[in-house]
UniProtKB/TrEMBL annotation:
NCBIfam families: ffh. Transmembrane segments: none annotated. It is found in: Cytoplasm. The keyword Transmembrane does not apply. It catalyses: GTP + H2O = GDP + phosphate + H(+). Involved in targeting and insertion of nascent membrane proteins into the cytoplasmic membrane. Binds to the hydrophobic signal sequence of the ribosome-nascent chain (RNC) as it emerges from the ribosomes. The SRP-RNC complex is then targeted to the cytoplasmic membrane where it interacts with the SRP receptor FtsY. Interaction with FtsY leads to the transfer of the RNC complex to the Sec translocase for insertion into the membrane, the hydrolysis of GTP by both Ffh and FtsY, and the dissociation of the SRP-FtsY complex into the individual components. This is Signal recognition particle protein. CDD domains: SRP_G. The keyword RNA-binding applies. Part of the signal recognition particle protein translocation system, which is composed of SRP and FtsY. SRP is a ribonucleoprotein composed of Ffh and a 4.5S RNA molecule. It comes from Piscinibacter gummiphilus. It comes from the Bacteria. Belongs to the GTP-binding SRP family. SRP54 subfamily. Composed of three domains: the N-terminal N domain, which is responsible for interactions with the ribosome, the central G domain, which binds GTP, and the C-terminal M domain, which binds the RNA and the signal sequence of the RNC.
Amino acid sequence: ALTDRLSRLVKTMRGQARITESNVQDMLREVRMALLEADVALPVVRDFIARVKEKALGAEVVGSLTPGQALVGIVNKELAATMGEVDPATGAVKPPADINLAAQPPAVILMAGLQGAGKTTTTAKLAKHLIEKRKKKVLTVSADVYRPAAIEQLKTVSKQAGAEWFPSTATDKPVAIATAALDHARRHYFDVLLVDTAGRLAIDEALMKEIAELHAAVKPVETLFVVDAMQGQDAINTAKAFKEALPLTGIVLTKTDGDSRGGAALSVRQITGAPIKFAGVSEKIDGLEVFDAQRHAGRVLGMGDIVALVEEVQKGVDVAAAQKLADKLKSGDNFDLNDFLAQISQMKKMGGLSGLMDKLPTQMTGGKAANIGQADMDRAERDVRRMEGIINSMTPLERRKPELLKATRKRRIAAGAGVQVQDVNRLLNQFDQMQGMMKKMKGGGLMKMMKRMGG
Ligand code: GDP
Ligand code: MG
């Protein structure tokens, strides 16, 4: 599979300190494939890759990461920044704004999108959200005059949402229905009017004209484009057509509970420029969540595991210390118990062995991750804590030259750490082995070592 190839590349690029013109090409080709496989439209992919390349070239590779992993981190960050919105103050992706209701009540929300995209369902979900979270009095109306069943459907789901529903008849004109509902909402002091509309299976001139007229008649404060996350490459054309017809203010991405990678989000966001506000996560009336660009990015790329690992390394590891350590590892000879202790404490920052093993893709752990039970993990974590206690009980000199340790000192150390002398001896043996391993792998990194220690 594609992600396997990408993972393989992530591994083969190990040992190179920077992302360069030459090592980035193969990686970017795979990222490009990953995005196309996730159904991101080609022109959007091209743009995106160009931006990533610019950001990646010459980027420092932090700590124990390979350039490949670092690149996946950059791609993921750029994906999240593109699908979401970056807070200029912090540089982090911020959650989208809730539905804008800043209008003379009733605030009108117009729902647009292809047939089957999930407009009617989302209308009810939003009604429930506005009633429960924003304490608003909400009216719904259907302007889908082509399918009487659609009007009934809105009635049913509105009731489930606890919203009032304004009756409409299939023989009326959409604009007449919507203005009647607006008038009713005004006279009965509704805060919000949600206008559900008709869709077509494909974009069609008449439909676009009709919804533009509706928009002019009801002057919505929000015009939401409802789009199916499972829609493939064609999402780009749909988004273009709706953007031309209407000033879109937001996007709702539905059916994210399906098994698609949801690349439509990237295309639609880039084409419309409108924020993705919500994601539909089930058919049920409460199946609506605030859109999480970070989470969705991991899914589009299909490399959530590596992404999570990269993030932990970036936030948990002291870069300077990691670099110093890496330098020592390369020489192998002067790796002492102080470094061993530093390794252990870095490992703890990364969420310990169990957290780490969970995150490593099986390709990187040789398929063993799944076979390591919780009991093994717990034992490994206990061992690590014990080792730390023992090393802490040594003097700095002893940590640098453990071969100096005599039986009496070992007893003192054991007593200080609350362990047996044999535990101290075991630690010294492990340290010996690790020092030998270091020399062999010549700076192969933290990951390998932790694998050994965990397994
Ligand atoms: P409309 O034609 O745009 O009004 O689309 P509908 O609201 O009638 O939805 C079409 C189908 O998609 C229905 O069967 C819905 O139950 C389903 N649907 C809508 N949103 C979601 C969602 O987020 N998750 C899932 N699983 N199904 C959804
Ligand atoms: Mg409908």
